[in-house]
Amino acid sequence: MAQIISLTAHPRTRTGKGAARQVRFGRQVPAVIYGHGRATEALAVDAKALELALGGVEWASTLVQLTIGDQTVRTLIREVQRHPVRPDILHLDFYEIRADEKVRLRLPIHLVGSPEGVRNQGGVLDQVAREIEIEVLPEHIPDRLDIDVTNLTIGHSLHVRDITIPNATILTAGELTIATVVPPRTEEVAAAPAEGAPELAEPELIRKPREEAEGEGEAGEGETESQG
Asked: How far is it between the farthest Cα atoms of the chain?
């Protein structure tokens, strides 16, 4: 089952970049809520309360009981925008949902176990997909998708078609690879001589000494002259 968190939001009357900066200056996070015919409504959420609520949860698959004034609605977080350098949340989108209507969401994938091909064959586990899209009723939203890769050997893969999620329809294409074990990556590196080992001799240059070569040249010239 999906985790459920509770948050309180306050309506905003001003929108735009300048208004959003003012909201952040007041240690709040600008947000919007939409869905089910609701006109998009601008909100503000306490920044500290938001960070505490989202700590350690998968926000994409977490149900949020959002209180706005005297109304509490059930929502999903559709998007979280963070600062490119700091961990600050800059903006988020809430999507109102209904208990009797299926929703589409992206479910995080977590690989569980150490593959056979890594433990005993020296392979490397490569996780290709990190989330899949599903359609499900809110009450059946899983917290996350755990996939056991213990029996995966080198050259073998797990695909979306290999998994099932109770009470949910998987929308991601079945041929998509989730994880695979590949052979170890090797690099050809010149081996350094072991400590204390004799250094390799420089390759011998097969040539005659300079003086001998010059002597032969002079003799050659003399032979040419005598023949003339």
From this structure: 122
Span 180-190, average pLDDT: 73
- Are 129 and 109 in contact by the 8 Å Cβ rule? The answer is yes
| Amino acid residing at 155 | G
Taking the domains of the chain in order of start, what are their residue ranges?
Answer: 4-97, 105-182
Positions of E strands within 69-138:
71-82, 89-96, 103-112, 124-127, 131-136
Domain spanning 105-182: which superfamily? Ribosomal protein L25, C-terminal domain (2.170.120.20)
| CA distances from residue 91 to 43, 110, 163 in whole angstroms, order as listed | 10, 26, 34
CA nearest to 6, candidates 80, 74, 89, 93: 74
pLDDT digits (tens, 9 = 90+) for 131-181: 999 999 999 999 889 999 999 999 999 999 999 999 999 999 999 999 999
Name the residue among 12, 136, 164 with its Cα closest to residue 63: 136
- By residue count, the chain amounts to 228
Query: Of the candidates 56, 39, 55, which has an alpha carbon nearest to the alpha carbon of residue 47?
Result: 55
Residue pointed to by tokens 């078609």: 161
Bridge-based pairing of strands 89-96 and 28-35 is parallel
d(CA 185, CA 100): 50
Q: How many CB atoms lie within 10 A of CB 52?
A: 12
Q: Is the pTM of this model over 0.90?
A: no
CATH superfamily of 4-97: Ribosomal Protein L25; Chain P (2.40.240.10)
CA-to-CA distance for 150 and 136, rounded, in angstroms? 28
